[in-house]
Amino acid sequence: MSRFLQVLRWELLLSKRQIATMALTFFGLVVIPQILTLVFKSSSSSAYTMGIISSVALSAYLLCSGALIFSSLRSRQQRINNFMLPASNKEKFIARYLVLVVAMPLAAIAGFFAGDVLQYLMSLMINSDAAQWATSALTEGLNNGNGIFHFYTNLNGDPSPVEGFLVILLGTITQHACFLLFGSIYHKHPLVMAVLTWMGLGIALLMLGALAANLLSEFINSGYTIILYDAWWKALYFVVSIALIIFCYWFAFRRYTRLQVINNQWINK
Amino acid sequence: MIDVRDLCFHYQGSKHQVFDHFALQLQPGSVYGLLGKNGTGKSTLLYLISGLLRPDSGTVTVNGMESRLRLPEMLQEVFIVPEEYAMPDMSFEAFADMMRAFYPHFSDDLLAKCLTDFEMPARPNLKELSMGQKKKVYMSFAIATGTRLLMMDEPTNGLDIPSKALFRKVVANYMEDNRTLIISTHQVHDIESLLDHVVIINQSRVLLNSSIADISRRYAFRYLSPQEMDNTVLYAEPTLQGNAVIMPRGEGEETQVDLELLFNATISGKLGNA
């Protein structure tokens, strides 16, 4: 455990510049627009809008950040430093993942809150009518999200927010895991390539879905009776999602253990 | 200590087989000079030993552990100094702290001594170092880790002439007997006095794997005038001082091994007939 903490410390030290950039970006995202608003349009506030934008940006980061799993192993020297570090592959991979998926968002949140406090105090000093918390957009967003879960119904047709939450959570983790998989396949521009692949797959799945729906309607129109059990679909969704998540994490880890200092084609013996 | 068996390796996208059923055994406690022509795979071999590359087939083991698995127990006993090095983006103190945490035999005392002998400040600013200075600092860390196996790829490249002498001094002073050092280089004169073992490889074959003592016992390295040349000469190269030759030592006095001459003779296959 102590060695793992040392690996985590090593990764944090090496990523400190990116972590600081992340915090500053979210700090600036809240503060700069509010300064401009106060200067040019003193009666209004951009805090609420920037709160929404920040939360969307952070959600997008959490969904797509897996694609950046090997982005700090670009140079030969970075790879030598990482691979020669006396720790297990598992420790190094988990530490790398935690920095990307926990430390970076935490830095973003810290930057956001610090920026929100600053912009609120500035607004109070310049024009107290324009003072508004950007954080209120987040709390409101969370409440609205909670409302969406209530629309989800179970097999009996009753509202089932817990099940709804699980379905959306699983979908989100699946997308995150898929980006992890893409990030371990693409070496050049992994984020761009991952987004393009995701879009391509999304379009392909939509087309397949449309094709399947069309076939079903043709069957039904020609007199067949097709019974689709809702429970089966839900079970299939859960099983496929969990299997896909496990596969993506396994693949990314296996890929990490096979990375080399040079010679990095994505299929290595 | 290092056991390379039936090693096959090629770089992806290249048809050139760097190693084709290559085998090599190295014993602990020696300073090995790994010599070979350009493209024979000296650096590749160091990377394969340290687990930075994976063999196509065959095995490379260090202290009985397969290097491709990068086990922590192996990694804490292995350190490699690559030809070109960029220090990580952190302070000297933070880097030393991390090294201390990961290498159980790390010695601050040894680090300070190496830095002093390399004529470097005790706390250098890692962001303001030249290429040669980076190499000196990194080599100091390499020695201070206390790993049982230390590998250096072209360690004297990028060092000025006084620094090359300092390098020899540091290695000679601080490499303990239980540690193994493998130096891969073209600059044989820079390391001649350090080596106690020579390995010459060419086209997947080990042409020579012998101690300097054994070479000195078997061969004499002399300068002969054209009139003195006879059929006992195994290999000769014309020089300004006469012909530099290798001949069987016989009962004669021991001579200093001329690594460059030995390398050329071995590569040309002349010593194989001896």
UniProtKB/TrEMBL annotation, chain A:
Keywords: Membrane, Transmembrane, Transmembrane helix. The chain crosses the membrane at residues 21-40, 52-73, 94-115, 164-183, 195-215, 235-253. It comes from the Bacteria. This is Uncharacterized protein.
UniProtKB/TrEMBL annotation, chain B:
SMART domains: AAA. It comes from the Bacteria. Keywords: ATP-binding, Nucleotide-binding, Transport. Residues 2-228 form the ABC transporter domain. GO terms for molecular function: ATP binding; ATP hydrolysis activity. InterPro entries: AAA+_ATPase (IPR003593), ABC_transporter-like_ATP-bd (IPR003439), ABC_Transporter_VariousFunc (IPR051782), P-loop_NTPase (IPR027417). PANTHER family: ABC TRANSPORTER ATP-BINDING PROTEIN ALBC-RELATED. This is ATP-binding cassette domain-containing protein. The lineage of its organism: Bacteria, Pseudomonadati, Bacteroidota, Bacteroidia, Bacteroidales.
